[in-house]
Amino acid sequence: MTRIQKYVAVAAVAAALVGAPTVSYAAAQGTAAHGTVAHAPSARIAAPGEHVTGAPGFELWLTAEGKFWTTPWDAEPQFRSVVDGNIDLGRPGVSLQAEGDQGHYVLSGLYYGGKGTASRVAVRTSAGTVHGELLELAGRPGWGVWYATADVPVGEEGGFDAFRSVTVHDTRGRVYSQLKLN
Question: Looking at the domain that runs over 41-180, which CATH code has it been given?
Answer without folding.
Answer: 2.60.40
